[in-house]
Design brief:
alpha/beta, TIM Barrel, 11 helices, 12 strands, 36% helix, 17% strand, binds ligand PBG
């Protein structure tokens, strides 16, 4: 659809001034688009930098008020907790996931009590932070068991809901877990707990720094290709999302972000439901390290996040959330 031609048409006219560029701008990034991930660690008064993610820290739960106050000041709508579980608490079944005093549960309790509904609390549903083999489910004869894993995920979901989680985000990629979790939540009268499904999660190479941070990297036996999606597929993403919507997902997530912008766009165009993107740890590290080494300038951060908006994402989980929000304010 070409609506004119040179020389009467000159697209550079509207690019000439800042005010004019602003008027024809199609997508904007605001603090409303940002979800801040927070890594948790055992102990008291701890703030430990994650080596592969300069500028990102893990915090002991007593430090949370400081961290959350800052997020609130930055007008970030939601935070997401990720635990670095002590290795002596990990086992084959990920039982620590069901301990109501585990790091995530403690963080949820403290945060809900102190902040009520001022900020959204999100927590993953998956076993990988708790298993001694680093997989998202339970393993038998080298197979990640689907239905048996869901039984544990249901318990983890109910527990996290009880602890004050607003948005449960199953990131495990077991088939059918959204429906089973929704059913269990409704039965226990957690009708208003939202399900943000990591519906389209690829078996990606960009998760390395995250696995390092939660201590699952060195433990992980093999890879996650039998449950996370093949990096070459996009039609399959449509089936994943369709399944999850039917099962009751309120929001779907595509992960990683930048290498999969085409998938975000396809899903948004096709389903017209809220779609979130996860700019994962490896994406963060690439951009951050390049900025620190002065290979690119820091406006690249906003550019990377705008690309998600252009593709159709409603919100973005990003380790840059605070940095960007304080600049956008
Ligand atoms: C695991 C989980 C992963 C991430 C979030 N939840 C990693 C994985 O699947 O191994 C990755 C996030 C990131 O890299 O920033 N359920």
């Amino acid at each position: 659809m070409i609506t004119g031609k040179y020389p009467s048409l000159r697209l550079r006219r509207s690019r000439k001034f800042d005010w004019s560029r602003r008027l024809v701008r199609e997508n904007d990034l605001s603090t409303n688009d940002l979800i801040l991930p927070i890594f948790l660690t055992e102990g008291k008064n701890k703030k430990i930098e994650i080596s592969k993610m300069p500028g990102i820290f893990k915090y002991s739960v007593d430090m949370l008020p400081k961290v959350i106050d800052k997020a609130l000041l930055n007008k970030i709508p939601m935070i997401a907790f990720f635990p670095n579980t002590l290795s002596n608490k990990k086992n084959d079944f990920g039982s620590e996931a069901l301990n109501e005093d585990n790091l995530v549960c403690k963080a949820l309790k403290i945060s809900k009590k102190r902040y009520k509904n001022e900020i959204g609390l999100m927590a993953d549903v998956a076993l990988d932070p708790y298993t001694s083999h680093g997989h998202d489910g339970i393993v038998k004869n080298n197979i990640i068991l689907n239905d048996q894993t869901i039984k544990i995920l249901i318990k983890q979901s109910l527990l996290q809901a009880e602890m004050g989680c607003d948005v449960l985000s199953p990131s495990d990629m077991m088939d059918g877990r959204i429906g089973e979790i929704r059913k269990a939540l409704d039965k226990k009268n957690f009708k208003d707990i939202q399900l943000l499904s990591y519906a389209v999660k690829y078996a990606s190479n960009f998760y390395g720094p995250f696995r390092n941070a939660i201590g699952s990297k060195s433990l992980l036996k093999g890879d996650k290709k039998t449950y996370q999606m093949d990096i070459s597929n996009s039609d399959e993403a449509i089936r994943e999302v369709a399944m999850d919507i039917k099962e009751g997902a309120d929001i779907v997530m595509v992960k990683p972000g930048m290498p999969y912008l085409d998938v975000i766009k396809t899903i948004k165009d096709k389903f017209k439901i809220p779609v979130f993107a996860y700019q994962v740890s490896g994406e963060y590290s690439l951009i951050k390290n390049a900025i620190d080494k002065k290979i690119i300038n820091k406006n690249a951060i906003i550019e990377s996040l705008i690309s998600f908006k252009r593709a159709g994402a409603n919100a973005i989980v990003t380790y840059f959330a605070n940095e960007v929000a304080s600049r956008l304010k």
